[in-house]
Every structure is written in C-alpha cells, then in structure tokens.
UniProtKB/TrEMBL annotation:
GO terms for molecular function: ATP binding; protein histidine kinase activity. The chain crosses the membrane at residues 12-29, 35-55, 112-129. Residues 230-451 form the Histidine kinase domain. PROSITE patterns: HIS_KIN. It is an enzyme of class 2 (transferase). It comes from the Bacteria. The keyword Ribosomal protein does not apply. The lineage of its organism: Bacteria, Pseudomonadati, Bacteroidota, Bacteroidia, Bacteroidales. Keywords: ATP-binding, Kinase, Membrane, Nucleotide-binding, Transferase, Transmembrane, Transmembrane helix, Two-component regulatory system. Its EC number is 2.7.13.3. PANTHER family: C4-DICARBOXYLATE TRANSPORT SENSOR PROTEIN DCTB, SENSOR HISTIDINE KINASE. This is histidine kinase. It comes from Lentimicrobium saccharophilum.
C-alpha cells in the first residue's frame, strides 16, 4: 500500500499520544504523582507537535517547490525515502517538473543569446528603450555609427545632437525620419524607423538607424542629371528657334560690311516675314518665361495647414468638380470609403490638388477605352495608416518610363505640363506620406496615396 509506512508511523504516534493521555488522567488522580503527571502532559504536547510537523511535511515540500519556481531556483531536489512509495511518486513528480523548468529556461537562454547575436551582427543600428528613455539594448552597429561605447539612457545621445533624444522619444510606431548628424566632423544622413512592442507588461520603442548618405548622394546626382536633361531639353526647344529667327531677322534688316552697317531696303514680303519672326520670338520667349515661373511655383509649395476631417469630403469635392468631364467621356467612377467615417489629418486644400491631379491622369488614361472605369478606394492598411488607391483600366504605363513619371516636367502626353505628379509627391512628402504607382501595360494603373 502506498501510504502503508506513513500510516504505520501516524498510528504508532497516535497510540503513543493516547497512552500518554490515559497515563496523564490516571496520574492526575493521585496527588503524590503531580510531577510525573506534569512531565507526562509535556511529553503528550511534544508528541502532538511532532505528529503535526510530521504530517505537514508534504505542505512544506509543496511550499518549497512553489518557492523554487517563484524565484527561478531549479537547483532544488526532493527526496524522502522513509515515507513510502506514494511520497516517492510525489518527489519524482516534483523533480520532473523542476527538470522541465530547468530545460525550458536553458532553451530560452539559448534563444535569447541567438537573437542577441543576430541583433549584434546586423549592420543597421538598433536601439530598444522604454518610454521613460531607459535603454534596454543597443547593438554594435550603433556604437560604430554614433561612435559611442556605452548607452544607458536615450538622453545620453544629446552629446551628439541636442534635439536627437527628444526626437526619438516622441516617435510612434511606423514613424520615419531623415536626420542629419555630425559625428567626428563627418556629416551623416540617418534614416530612422520606429516600431513599438510590449514586454513584461511594459511598452518599448525599437528604433533602427541607418546611414544612407551614399545612397542619397547617388540618388541626388541621378535626380540632378534627370532634371538637367529635362531643363536643357525645354530650354533648347525655345532658345534654338529664337536664335535662328533672330539671325534671320538680322540678315533681312542689316547689310553688314567690313566698315559699316546699313539697313536693307525692305519690300512688303520682307516686312511680313520679319513681323512673323518677331511674333514667334515673343511667343517662344513668353513660353520660356512661363516654364521658369512654373518651375519656381513647383519649389514654393505652402506649408500645410493641418486639420482633422473625413476622407469622404475629399471624394465629394473632387467628384463634383470632375463629374461633368467624366459624364461627357462616359467614364464610370466608383468612390468607396471603408469605414464610411474614415478620418485623416491633412491640409484639405493641398490634398484636393493631389486628388484632382490623380483623377485627371486616370481620366486621360481611360478616355479611349470602350468601357472606361475609375475606382477610388480609401481604407486603413496593415500598418494602421490610411491608403487611397486610384485604379483605372486604361492603357497602363510603359516600364521604361515608370521611374520617370514623378520627375518635374516629364510627360508622355501631348498637352501635358509634367508637373502634376511631381507636385502631388511633394505635397504628400510635406504630409509625411507617399505616392506610389503600380502599372501593367494594357491592363491599367494604380496610384496609391498613403498618409
């Protein structure tokens, strides 16, 4: 029997206590045995205390087991060979649980060391810190990037740039920032991305810092080259005929010999030719001035006046403005907002321009289709940001010009100015948002605006 030995011990102790109590009753009736009775009573009390302690050994063992788990002390072992097989089973169960906890802790430590090795190995700088700024972990890339050896609090980064700690502490999940830092007299362009997570009931912010100076320089040079090519093309288109016509007018008006300059005698045809040439020169000059003015306006977009409003308002204003043109061309436009009360924080006047530009592009893309269709859909994306898709079933954009459509003054339209998409991208940049495009030739195009 499992508790045989334990029961025998308990029965023996109970019998001894009973015998002591009977003896105590007998002795208490004899006045001459008062001392003996007192000793017998004390012995009975001691026996009761020992019995209780003996019986409560299981409770003490269970308490010891739970305390070991509470304090993550898995070095304890449980052995009692004098209480029977059932207590041996209890001890074995305790030891097996302790062993499993020990194994799980070892696996967690291995997993933690593995992740720590990965974090330390990546080339992108990583800092994880609490909301109060106390740094939990940072990797070697941060040490190399910021030239620091220790980082206990995020405010310690104030020695690099005074505004850097506040900027990092104010970031929220999904925020992106491009900052400039001077480290060891070297200017760095740092891309900062933030995400949040919760651990041990406490909120943490994880930020990654990556030096993209070389990539930005490369893109900047490429952008300047593209812009210079466009500007050169537009300017040459105006300057070449102006120069040619000016030379023609000069030859018709002046007789330039070695020693003197005389005016030719002009007939009616010559006067008419000069008149037409001067009109063309004036027209091309005004066109060139308008081009320069347009470029100046493109670089002077007003700062956004942010307010919180419903996305549906944008849809209604743009649809009302362009509805006559779409009806004339037989274009079906389907606006959808999920949920209907979806809100954004933006400058409605500037975003109206973005909506109109993208809708006009979609109208131009589908106007020659037999069943022209435009769909505008707004909804939260997987990152919790608001995305608006402008989809059309038009002719699509050729792959070789897909990377040029946001470049100022680039256009594939005969009557296009080439500033609509560039202006839209700049407006979204001021809103910390993006404009992206996906297109399949012959199938259609989707422009996505993300706030």
């Amino acid at each position: 029997m499992g508790f045989k030995k334990f029961r025998i011990n308990v029965i023996v102790r109970v019998l001894l206590i009973t015998a002591n109590l009977l003896l105590l009753v007998i002795l208490s009736r004899n006045e001459q045995q008062e001392v003996t009775a007192l000793i017998t009573g004390l012995l009975a009390v001691i026996q009761v205390a020992v019995l209780i302690r003996y019986i409560e050994r299981t409770n003490r063992k269970l308490t010891q087991f739970l305390e070991s788990i509470r304090h993550s002390d898995f070095s304890t072992s449980f052995f009692d060979r004098d209480l029977g097989r059932s207590f041996e089973g209890l001890n074995r169960a305790f030891n097996e649980v302790i062993s499993e906890f020990r194994k799980n802790r070892a696996e967690k430590e291995e997993h933690y060391n593995y992740l720590l090795t990965v974090v330390q190995h990546v080339s992108i700088g990583i800092i994880a810190f609490r909301k109060d700024g106390k740094v939990d972990i940072f990797n070697n890339a941060i040490k190399r990037l910021l030239k620091i050896s220790n980082l206990k609090h995020i405010r310690d980064l104030g020695v690099i740039k005074s505004s850097l700690p506040e900027m990092l502490l104010s970031m929220n999940a999904g925020d992106r920032q491009l900052i400039k830092l001077v480290v060891d007299n070297e200017l760095l362009q740092i891309s900062v991305y933030a995400t949040e997570f919760r651990m041990r009931g406490e909120e943490f912010l994880l930020v990654s810092l990556q030096n993209i100076s070389s990539e930005l320089e490369e893109k900047e040079i490429e952008s300047w080259q593209k812009l210079i090519r466009v500007l050169t093309h537009e300017i040459m288109n105006s300057i070449t005929p102006i120069s040619s016509l000016a030379s023609t007018v000069r030859e018709m008006l002046l007789d330039e010999s070695e020693n003197s300059v005389q005016i030719h005698t002009l007939d009616e045809d010559d006067l008419d030719s000069i008149h037409q040439a001067l009109i063309t020169i004036q027209s091309r000059s005004e066109g060139l001035l308008n081009f320069v003015e347009t470029y100046r306006n493109l670089t002077r977009i007003p700062r956004p006046n942010f307010r919180y409003f419903a996305v549906k308002e944008l849809f209604d204003r743009a649809h009302t403005l362009l509805k006559p043109k779409m009806e004339k061309l037989g274009i079906v436009c389907v606006p959808r907002v999920f949920p209907e009360d979806l809100m954004i924080t933006a400058d409605p006047d500037l975003i109206d321009q973005v909506f109109i530009n993208l809708l006009l592009n979609a109208i131009d893309a589908v106007k020659e289709k037999t069943e022209p269709r435009i769909s505008v859909t707004a909804s939260p994306n997987s990152n919790g940001r608001v995305s608006i898709d402008f989809s059309d079933n038009g002719h699509g954009i050729k792959p070789d010009i897909l990377d040029k459509i946001f470049m100022p003054f680039f256009t594939s339209k005969k009557d296009g100015s080439g500033i609509g998409l560039s202006l839209s991208r700049q407006i979204m940049h001021l809103h910390k948002g993006t404009v992206t495009v996906k297109s399949s030739p012959g199938e259609g195009t989707v422009f996505t605006v993300t706030f």
